[in-house]
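In this section we walk through a basic example: taking a raw amino acid sequence and producing a predicted 3D structure, encoded as discrete structure tokens. The instruction is simple. Fold the sequence below.
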Amino acid sequence: LRSGDHAKAAKVWSTDDLPRTSGPFRPIALRVCDASGRVTDLVRCTQPFSIEIEYQITEPVRNLEVQFKLYSALSQLLFISGELDDPAHRDRYVTRAPGHDVSRCRIPPNLLNRGVFNLGISAWVPNVHRHFWDQHSVTFTVDGTGAIGDWGVDRGGFFRPALQWDIECL
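The resulting token sequence is shown next.
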């Protein structure tokens, strides 16, 4: 019954799958991985996980933005995160050299509520050219089991951040 589990949690592109517009960006794979680095389509909301984008750059390219886009099961865009969101990366990778790269984004525990989510990826040079875009590449499920503060009650919404609270008894 579980033989196809990882089919949803990873997508691999062949050269034939790529549009001519992908230019110097060649996606290889998109994966959802658990804290141990294993591909999984089921993550616990209380555990960290990562999103991996594996790709090849075939020629030097300036200002390339490689991003993932997280969608709800109903295709609502929840947020976008990219390699160059970190200013240190932006300065270091102004020009991307040819090569085979893997970018990993670590998702902290207690960010996503239980539910089904879709991942897409894009690679583009802002205001110049979109090299690649695949809106629904991967699907994964977040399990709410063991969530602190739930008491078995569905909190609703997409996010469940563990925010800092102070209680002052007067």
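Looking at the output, two observations stand out. The chain has two helices and eleven strands. Residues 33 and 39 are 4 Å apart (CA to CA). In the next section we compare this with other chains.
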